[in-house]
Design brief:
Number of helices: 9
Distance between the termini: 91 Å
Order of helices and strands: EHHEHEHEHEHHHH
Oligomer: single chain
Helix content: 40-55%
Strand order of the largest sheet: 2-1-3-4-5
Number of domains: 2
CATH class of the largest domain: Alpha Beta
CATH topology of the largest domain: Rossmann fold
Radius of gyration: 28 Å
Low-confidence stretches: 67-71, 197-211
CATH architecture of the largest domain: 3-Layer(aba) Sandwich
Number of strands: 5
Largest sheet: 5 strands, parallel
Mean pLDDT: 79
CATH superfamily of the largest domain: Glycogen Phosphorylase B
């Protein structure tokens, strides 16, 4: 299963189902090898008294080996499959892999899912604290052993109070859009401020082709000049149109000449 925000670019926005229309209560797919939190989640799901009922309401696709590397697991999903799965899912458990901060959380926001994470990772100073600081709505657990009961509770909540979590989804989607814009702006600003390493010379020591133009695009100078040009030109067009209207009015009001 290839990871990263780009996964979800494969699916057109028109397939972004509303929260209530999503058929899967939850879904998780990923590599379980050597990742304690994921192993704990798998044990809890499989050993629970209502395991069959819980798994029936979601999608569970564990495999060994990251599919993004050569020789990766054949059981992994491709980009389209994973994207479609996320778009059709309400809640996404995110047990830590190498780190508690992982692609699945950002993929969940991009797809309109609500992540499920451990509360300890969102404490001040922890890797997921930015989610709390920014105000994202997530489902919190004390341990992954609590996941099965939490999923049963969420199923009842969604059935009886669907608008509660739909509003949380909408809140996350709006906030995520703002975060992406802010990140893009910060990257552009950094590109301008850091002097663009590598712009001193090209691969052979000559002038770097297009370096100045690239910096100007990132800094917004090119488009700022275009905006100013358009504003000046639009002012002249409005003046010319107003003058022509006034001239036509005067001509229409002149008395007809008599012989």
């Amino acid at each position: 299963m290839p990871l990263g925000l780009a996964n979800l670019k494969a699916l057109p926005a028109t397939f972004k189902y509303e929260f209530a229309e999503r058929p899967h209560l939850w879904a998780w797919a990923g590599d379980t090898g050597g990742k304690p939190e994921r192993a704990e989640m798998m044990r809890a799901l499989n050993d629970h008294a209502s395991a069959a009922q819980i798994i029936e309401r979601g999608v569970l696709r564990p495999f060994s080996g990251y599919a993004g590397r050569p020789g990766g697991s054949a059981a992994a999903m491709n980009v389209w499959e994973y994207s479609m799965l996320m778009r059709r899912t309400k809640f996404v458990p995110a047990p830590a892999g190498v780190s508690a901060e992982q692609f699945r959380i950002w993929e969940a926001f991009e797809a309109g899912c609500i992540p499920i994470v451990l509360a300890k990772h969102m404490a001040p100073g922890q890797v997921l604290y930015p989610l709390k600081f920014l105000g994202f709505e997530v489902v919190l657990l004390e341990s992954w052993g609590d996941l099965p009961d939490k999923l049963l509770w969420l199923a009842e909540e969604v059935a009886h109070n669907p608008q509660v979590h739909a509003r949380k989804q909408q809140h996350n989607s709006r906030l995520w859009a703002r975060v992406k814009v802010a990140v893009a702006s910060r990257i552009a600003q950094s590109v301008c401020e850091d002097g663009r390493p590598g712009c001193v010379g090209g691969p052979t020591g000559g002038a770097a082709v297009g370096c100045d133009d690239t910096r100007e695009v990132y800094c917004g100078r090119v488009h700022a000049r275009k905006q100013q040009h358009n504003s000046r030109l639009w002012a002249r067009v409005k003046g010319a149109v107003a003058s022509r209207i006034a001239q036509s009015v005067c001509e229409d009001r002149r008395p007809a000449a008599t012989e």
